Amino acid sequence: MTQAEVGASAAKPQAAAGAGVRGGRAKTFRRFRYAPAVGAGAGMVVVWHLIVTGFDIPTYIAPSPWQVLQVFATQGDILWVNFLPTLLEAVCGFALGNTVAVLLAVWFVHSGLAERAFYPIAVFINTIPIIAIAPILVLMLGNGYEPKIVIAALICFFPTLVNMVRGLKAVSPQMLELMRVLSASEREVLFKIRLQSSLPFLFAALRIASTTCVIGAIVGEWIGSNYGLGSLIIEATYNFRAPLLYATVILGAGLAVAFFVITSLVERIVLKWKPGEVY
Q1: Which option is the CATH number for 65-270: 2.40.128.260, 1.10.3720.10, 1.10.3880.10, 3.40.30.10?
Q2: What contacts 198, CB < 8 A, 6 or more positions away?
Q3: What is the pTM of this model?
């Protein structure tokens, strides 16, 4: 055995050991990557408790974390009954708004006339505050689920439309030229090239929509509703039931976070070819 071969054979265990160390560090990082967020959240709760108790703030202004936690235990049935309508409205609005946005984006990419005609209208609608549109929808559709779903859909619609149009157009000219050489139809170009290239843009918009759809549903319930988290927030505010108010707000925020996490997980499953990100 030559000296070079001896050196190479000796280097292999060292390389394997180095790879093992790097792999262990990566596993440790993945295991504790949420620790800073958890620690920061726990610290904020502690600070909240110290401020409320230290300054002797009245409960109707700012309850302690323990009082808010008691609401989940003693009035959980009220929270659950109002949580389900908001969940339904947010999910339906998310599905409706994003579906319409994707279909319009496909139409705009294939028809320049349609894009020039209707894209400015979409921009104009987006400039109107959702709190101003909500009463109109309630008058038109009543106090049922329909206006809340439409409001949630509207607040999801525009970000998805903008990102989807950009994503469908973000195809390299060389790839389009190759598809033309291969005599691919417009449908084949759409499903095999354009939609694939637009997925990162689409999921970027869906992350935004996954949280804003909850906001839209709650805003719709503020305008005219006897159920839902939005209605419960108004009722708790007017009756100075601060612990219930804080618990309802936390529940709504938790719903938005859950939607965001689910969207991120779906993105990881669908976009396996996309470079990994730090979440």
Answers
A1: 1.10.3720.10
A2: 105, 164, 166, 167, 168, 170
A3: 0.79
